[in-house]
């Protein structure tokens, strides 16, 4: 499966586009590589399916998940028990930026948003 930096939600009623930052793309790539190396393609597909489901959920209701940083308008959501997604909603142009998909086993100081 090839990920693009820009996802357009197919439903006409949803105006939000999801944009993956380079950092998020790198996070996804590292996670998939790890899962394929240490586990199986099934786990990698499950991760991508959860990410796709989350994309649809936040496009339908971007404010559903709690703020991580209210001043910066950054939200967080647990994707898996090992990964937290941080995203920012830009209302004026209806874009949701997926900033990072942070692996919780990393040093928390690496999480600089």
Q: Tags for this entry?
A:
single chain; 113 residues; alpha+beta; YaeB-like fold; 6-stranded mixed β-sheet; 2 helices
Shape, per Cα inertia axes: globular
Structural class: alpha+beta
Number of beta-strand segments: 6
**Residues in helix, %:** 25-40%
Question: What is the arithmetic mean of pLDDT?
Answer: 85
The name of the CATH architecture is: 2-Layer Sandwich
Domain module count: 1
CATH superfamily: RelE-like
Order of helices and strands, N to C?
Answer: EEHHEEEE
Strand order of the largest sheet: 1-2-6-5-4-3
CATH topology label = YaeB-like fold
Number of helices: 2
Terminal CA distance: 27 Å
CATH class call: Alpha Beta
Radius of gyration: 14 Å
List unreliable stretches of 5+ residues: 4-13
Query: Major beta sheet, specifics?
Result: 6 strands, mixed
Sheet-strand content, in percent, reads: 25-35%
How would you describe this protein?
The protein has one domain (6-104): RelE-like (YaeB-like fold), CATH 3.30.2310.20. The chain is built from two helices and six strands. Helix 1 runs antiparallel to helix 2 (41-60). By secondary structure, the chain is an alpha+beta fold. It has helices at residues 22-38, 41-60; strands spanning 6-8, 17-20, 67-69, 74-80, 83-90, 95-103. The protein has a six-stranded mixed beta sheet with strand order 1-2-6-5-4-3. Mean pLDDT is 85; it is low at 4-13.
């Amino acid at each position: 499966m090839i990920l693009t930096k820009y996802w357009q939600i197919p439903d006409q009623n949803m105006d939000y586009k999801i944009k993956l930052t380079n950092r998020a793309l790198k996070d996804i790539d590292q996670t998939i590589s790890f899962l394929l190396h240490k586990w199986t393609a099934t786990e990698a597909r499950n991760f991508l399916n959860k990410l796709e489901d989350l994309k649809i959920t936040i496009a339908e209701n971007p404010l559903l998940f709690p703020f991580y940083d209210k001043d910066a308008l950054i939200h967080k959501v647990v994707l898996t028990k090992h990964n937290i997604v941080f995203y920012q909603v830009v209302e004026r142009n209806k874009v949701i930026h997926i900033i990072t998909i942070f692996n919780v086993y990393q040093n928390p100081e690496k999480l600089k948003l």
